[in-house]
Specification:
heterodimer; A: five-stranded mixed β-sheet; 6 strands; about 15% strand; B: about 140 residues; about 30% helix
Chain lengths: ~290, ~140
């Protein structure tokens, strides 16, 4: 049985922890709002880009004119997995989810005898994958110092990927990130970047418009394809930031609640014990008086 | 009064402009072009330059853009810019930075086609610098 003093200390320490988690929750909530706004602001660009891409891809067709980034190398031997996670922990299963998906993917590919290379975006991806797939990690990105995710970061990653692609270091590139559904639900997602996954044949309104191209369609496509990859990476990064903050918020909310429960329980046993001690002292006094 | 149409200027980070305009001048990679209402559907890449548009109220606004492309439809025109800055917010540092980056691109280019592209980009930037910065 812990002494009264022990209990008091524990209550104090749990209270301190609760204060920290509470503060983290509020910080996460504020950051989440900002992240959501950023994701929202980026949406028009990626939507336009997607519609233009599908439009122009139709015009060019899958011909030989299409840039290599879209058609791929025609092989399927070396896979590059770009795993995007957060840079910090304490956000529940957020990082774990993404890494688990990537790990399963890697295991499947390895079982098929393919070569797997991993690019870690975010510190946690590296931390979590280092043990099992350390030898496969070819590149790391760490954006801990970056206060606000901007297109520059997406470009950095994209340039690295293009460089590797041009050097023929991989055939297929898949991006892993977490799609932000809501504060309590983030869905880990795998998305193929290179070669570009065939655009969903959506019935776009009036896509029948016959465009004039300047310069010609394939030149525009060659210019657009890398840009579209960048945009996809950028979107993934933004979704990730929003997801991380959402996950952190709910994780910290849970932690705060748990700490509250713990404080209640501890105070209960503290009070009981104090009462027991008082009773004990009273009995001692009374029985002492009776003995006289 | 000329017909107006919808014009949008979008950068990856945000929607910068969404308004009704009567004409837009776009620095196409093959030369400047002015878009007015009911333009034939056109898709064009753009070079670093100045996009200027005249709003419904006849006021002209100008944005500096660094590459991107334009999607023109009879009912509207969308410019997707890699980076866009309002002319008033423009200063010599931003463009110097871009030029330095472009120079690095030229030096680091691995093959001729890439070097050629990087050099063109650098040229366009230098022209732009001369055009917008008062000496």
């Amino acid at each position: 049985m812990p002494s009264l003093k022990d209990l008091k200390n524990r209550i104090a320490s749990v209270k301190a922890t609760q204060k920290i988690t509470k503060a983290m929750q509020m910080v996460a909530a504020a950051k989440l709002r900002r992240a959501q706004e950023a994701a929202e602001a980026a949406r028009p660009y990626s939507q336009r880009m997607a519609s233009v891409m599908s439009n122009i891809a139709q015009a060019v067709g899958g011909g030989d004119d299409a840039p290599r980034i879209m058609t791929g190398t025609g092989k399927d031997d070396v896979h590059l997995l770009v795993v995007c996670t957060a840079d910090r922990g304490l956000c529940g299963g957020f990082n774990g989810q993404i890494v688990r998906l990537a790990r399963e993917h890697a295991r499947k590919l390895l079982a098929q005898g393919k070569t797997v290379k991993i690019m870690c975006v975010g510190k946690k991806a590296n931390d979590l994958l280092r043990r099992d797939y350390g030898s496969h990690i070819v590149e790391r990105f760490d954006f801990r110092e970056v206060r606000k995710m901007s297109f520059v970061q997406a470009e950095q990653i994209a340039e690295k990927i293009f460089g590797m692609f041009d050097a023929g270091e991989f055939d297929v590139c898949t991006l892993f990130y977490s799609e932000f559904k809501s504060v309590i639900s983030q869905i880990p997602t795998a998305q193929q970047l290179i070669p570009a996954a065939p655009a969903e044949a959506e019935e776009s309104e009036g896509s029948a418009a016959v465009y004039d191209y300047e310069p010609d369609a394939s030149a525009i496509l060659a210019d657009l394809a890398p840009r579209s990859v960048k945009v996809q990476i950028f979107r993934a990064l933004l979704e990730n930031v929003a997801g991380e903050m959402g996950a952190k918020m709910s994780a910290m909310d849970n932690a705060t609640r748990n700490a509250g429960e713990m404080i209640d329980k501890l105070s209960m046993s503290y009070n009981r014990q104090r009462q027991a001690q008082i009773t004990k002292e009273l009995i001692e006094i009374i029985s002492g008086a009776e003995a006289l | 009064m000329a017909n107006s149409f919808k014009f949008e200027l979008v950068s990856p980070e945000q929607l910068l402009v969404s308004t009704e305009v009567t004409s837009v001048v776009i620095p196409g990679s093959e030369g400047d072009m002015t878009v007015m209402a009911n333009h034939a559907p056109t898709m064009a890449t753009i070079r670093p330059g100045i996009v200027s548009f005249t709003g419904d109220d006849g006021k002209e606004e100008r944005f500096v853009v660094f590459g991107g492309f334009a999607d023109i439809l009879p009912e509207g025109c969308t410019v997707l810019a890699e980076k866009a800055i309002h002319v008033d917010d423009m200063n010599s540092e931003i463009i110097k930075e871009q030029i330095a980056a472009a120079q690095k691109g030229v030096e680091e280019a691995k093959h001729d086609a890439q070097a050629q592209r990087a050099r063109e980009f650098l040229d366009q930037l230098t022209t732009l610098e001369g055009a917008i910065l008062p000496a």
